[in-house]
Amino acid sequence: MSQFKRTLLGRLTSLLLSGLLVGQAITVTAGQQDDRYEPGRITYAHFNKDGQLLIPRNYREWIFIGAPVTPKDMNDGNPAFPEFHNVYIDPVSWAHWKQTGKFRDGTIIVKELVSVGAEEAASGNGYFQGEYLGIAATVKDSKRFADRPNNWAYFGYDSYESKSTAPQPDESCNTCHKENAAEDNVFVQYYPVLRAGKPEKK
Ligand code: HEC
């Protein structure tokens, strides 16, 4: 066999193998993510028959959009949501946001709570993330939450041990979001990634 043919054969084999591997990786991820397909859309927000949101498990593989921090020492020891908030949006809603600058029906945004750990590091004094504390989430759905302001419902916060969680009353969460958030209930003003991803107005 000529050197050329051998190289070509080698390339083809590795291409085939990597194709198989990618195929497998996608199947595995899809299995883990449990992202079910509903007619007409892929959704990352799943509910049980009582209308409770199943606590999302794989959100650390979604799009990270920002990390507000409300430290205890600046909030009389008791911030509403302690302390770092690592915020993620599901990938299909991110793609939709980049295209349209809107939150699609079915959007889910998770905020993961992390304690302040160290307050000094080799880089200087500051707030450095400590331990995971739990999560909160919000879902926009015009059918399921037809009566909620801007069709968003709010969940949390919960420990990782809980399997599902019921929507909160509007007064507890939605009202503040609707009044103070920059866009459609979401605090886009604190998420540089969302601002950067938003398409220019034509
Ligand atoms: C008094 C105002 C206020 C109330 C009440 C409130 N939030 Fe928020 N929420 C905020 C602000 C401000 C942010 C962004 C900054 C931050 O995380 O500190 C935010 C961010 C979020 C986010 C990330 C997505 C987004 O919209 O920016 C989720 C999820 C969330 N809150 C859930 C809840 C839940 C669940 C409740 C009710 C239990 C709740 N919030 C009550 C002010 C509020």
From TrEMBL:
Q: Which residues cross the membrane?
A: none
Q: What keywords tag this UniProt record?
A: Signal
Domain Cytochrome P460: start-end pairs: 56-187
Q: Report the leader peptide range.
A: 1-30
Entry-linked InterPro entries: Cytochrome_P460 (IPR032033), Cytochrome_P460_sp (IPR038142)
The cross-references to Gene3D superfamilies, in alphabetical order and at most eight, read:
Cytochrome P460
Q: Which Pfam families match?
A: Cytochrome_P460
UniProt name for this protein: Cytochrome P460
Organism, scientific name: Nitrosomonas communis
